Amino acid sequence: MPQTTAYHHGDLRAACLRAARELLEEDGSAALSMRAVARRAGVSPAAPYRHFPEREALVSAVAAEGYRELTEHLAAVHPAPAAPDEIAAVAVAYVRFALDHPALFRAMFAEPCDPDNEERVAATAAIAEYVRDIARRAFPGADPDALWTSVWALVHGLAFLHLDGKFDTSTPDAVADQVRTAVLALFTAAPALSQAADTQPR
Amino acid sequence: MPQTTAYHHGDLRAACLRAARELLEEDGSAALSMRAVARRAGVSPAAPYRHFPEREALVSAVAAEGYRELTEHLAAVHPAPAAPDEIAAVAVAYVRFALDHPALFRAMFAEPCDPDNEERVAATAAIAEYVRDIARRAFPGADPDALWTSVWALVHGLAFLHLDGKFDTSTPDAVADQVRTAVLALFTAAPALSQAADTQPR
DNA sequence: CCTCTCATGTGTGCACCGCTTACATTCTCT
DNA sequence: AGAGAATGTAAGCGGTGCACACATGAGAGG
């Protein structure tokens, strides 16, 4: 039957997200255009606008998806890391994710995120909470704020600088070793960290 | 004289860079278009292509300029930091630069940098060298590699997460305190860092 | 001084983009 | 079954990157 209607797509929103992800992985964020997404979904150029009022909204939705996947990816390594090596393993997974999905990772962090997209802020809040929990578990007594920000920043910075080719990424093992080393070192300094946080109040 | 020739601009390349910087600061990287640059320089849309074969080349040139300015900015705080507080002060300046020039900082780091643009790689090499020197000075005996990468990553991550609004950036002092705290803590851990680097060879 | 040459700027055009508006189709709900 | 909302299409506007042929004028060689 040629006329199996097909006027309505079924789940165009999901199809758009899938197409966007594919375009992102294939040709980078420049290739992620509304029209290209529409083409790939087999739909008219204006159709995606029914589900994403503007390009920015599509990108934000993709980024939110990325945040959730990253969180799952980390949790899969260890659901509740506490010991330094467990935490270091999670850090390695973070950098690994960035290197495995460079365009997605950039979409998540590289462009200014709009504070209005609630899906996106929810997803980022979730990952921030995950990191904060790690700090809480690893250092029950300490003020977690000074810890989790430092840990996240270190790992995030490692991910980005690796992504930008500033460090050697030739072999996965070299990357993993470097990340592990840096994170473990930071954790040996943790007592000094929370102490410093006490010293200069707020 | 209306006809002071003016057919040739004089120094269009510099004018384009200036215009690009202005557009970047005013309206973000999306506003940085070849045509907008041409308009602002008072020149035809195709003229900038005589100096930058493609948009990417213009962006790379702006980024290289940014790298050089950042390096100067850091060196101005302290030309040869060695003590922890001096280094922490430089770290604060790094984050400050990112927050003061968000679009420029993003242009420098957020998009995949092409390894072919030699101006850009030279500028990044210079800043990497500056950071490496810091590590060397601060820890003369130690293997500097494990140090400078960690320090840079921590600071870079702090800059980016602040830029993305993941941390509190309401007052400059709060930002500075957080950066100082994190960096100082990492430096107290430096012995452990180089020791770990020795333990797991390469 | 005059001409030749070439770097540099102009004009035009193509394909693509984001986004809007008016219209067509289908789903859903009563 | 009919109304109205949801979701698709068609057409069009202004902007963009980039390629091409052409115009201009500054500097080198006679």
TrEMBL record, chains A, B:
Specify whether Amino-acid biosynthesis is a keyword of the entry.
no
The DNA-binding region ranges are: 33-52
Q: Which domain of life is it from?
A: Bacteria
The alphabetical list of record keywords is: DNA-binding, Transcription, Transcription regulation
For whether the record's keyword set contains Transcription, the answer is yes
Q: Where does the HTH tetR-type domain lie?
A: 10-70
**InterPro entries for this protein:** Homeodomain-like_sf, HTH-type_TetR-like_transc_reg, HTH_TetR, MT1864/Rv1816-like_C, Tet_transcr_reg_TetR-rel_C_sf
Query: Sorted alphabetically, which Pfam families does this protein's record hold?
Result: TetR_C_33, TetR_N
Q: What is this protein called?
A: TetR/AcrR family transcriptional regulator
Species this protein is from: Streptomyces ochraceiscleroticus
